[in-house]
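User: Hi! I'm working on a homework problem where we have to compare a predicted structure to a textbook description. Could you give me the structure for the chain below?
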Amino acid sequence: MKRRSFCLLFFASMLIPSTAEVLPNIIIFYADDQGYQDLSCFGSPNIKTPNIDRIAKEGCRFTDFYSAYCVCSASRAALMTGCYQPRISMPGVLGPHSKVALHPDEVTIADLLQSRGYATQCVGKWHLGDHSDTLPTSQGFDHYFGYPYSNDMARKKGFGNNPADLDRIWKEKNWPAYNGELYRDEKVIEQPVNQTTLTDRYGEECLKFITRKARTHKTDYKQQKPFFLYYANSMPHVPLFVNDERFDPDPKVAYKLTIEHIDAVVGKILDLLDELEIAENTLVIYTSDNGPWLSKNHHGGSALPLRAGKGTTYEGGMRVPCVMRWPGKIQAGTTCRQVASTIDLLPTIASLIGATPPQEEIDGLDITTLLQDPKAASPHDKVGFFYYRNNTPEAIRMGKWKLRLGGAPRKNRKTGKVSRRQPPELYNLEEDMSESRNLTSAKPEIVAKLTRVLNAYDGNLKANARPAWKAGDK
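Assistant: Happy to help. Predicted structure tokens:
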């Protein structure tokens, strides 16, 4: 029984179905470590992504869209629950057989959709716990097919994932030190996992799920149960793999080929929606869990023109590419430059299907108005968007202004020295999205205001934080 209850309410608007209308299918594509520039529709100079670009062309491109955390597990927990990391006490990254996980009592997007009669499927990387009580099937998903943590984990001691190792793994199409597990529902069906075929197998699972749930009468949407597909590819997190047909032994093209492989699978799914005549009633969202892993050199992506990448609260760590399509509901060929985030997907989807979780228990905001009008004001302009890292609010954005306070002082385990907190940094992101001109001296009143808002929000959030699941919980 979920700890938090939620109620069902019905609305009437251009986007929200009335009780007489059918509920939309929903597909979320969630890439792993894909940078802001790593789609051709976001300016990549060498990666070709015609299928994901098609989502943008037939829908909306969101230029100021954020993951709610800068690394894997916490960002996925935020997407699923609509909550910042400290509210749900989620660590940044979980390892295999972790004794901490997302609490099964948390209400996820899948729980919400299940309550409205949706068929739900999770395909790919979960990374919110691999104990039987914390797998997707305990979090609102009818079925799961995928890998429960990052695809560089479960490796033997002494084997790293530095660029030289990654070059070798790519060339040999193999990682002999690796012992990861592929799950179907709660059972391990393959160990170690053949990662060269993983993206294709994920795609096949998605196609089978959609086909099984396809409407019996293609032109009568009332004849079929709506579905929710959450497809979180294990890549382009390292190590990178593609199928033999796409393989090139040069490791410097590994990242490009991996993204283009993912794009091809997305294309097959979009084509199936057309074939089954259900595209018009399907909301499709493509985004990434955080910015690129820059230390992996050519095995990582690009966040340009943003600053830094994965693991940081600079824009390159958390601002990610995002495109959404819902024919007839989201205007085709549009661009939204307003602040939005993965934490907003739960309350927005709740509005679209007529289910409203208790707003005081989540941090995400309903961005339905941005789907209707990409030039509308973002609800984050008044409330703020907060960049958390290790339970610390390192930055806040309100409108065009971003104040970055940096991480809290930390003690070095080896030396015992305590680091100093970085001085404040204030940026006008409308004029300086690369965060190159610190305006703290010129705008002290804005620094003071944003500091007050950040401290007040953080204090309230932590006063109402909820525990994570821990091994031994009943």
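For your comparison, note the following. The longest strand covers residues 25-31. The chain has eleven helices and 20 strands. Good luck with the assignment!
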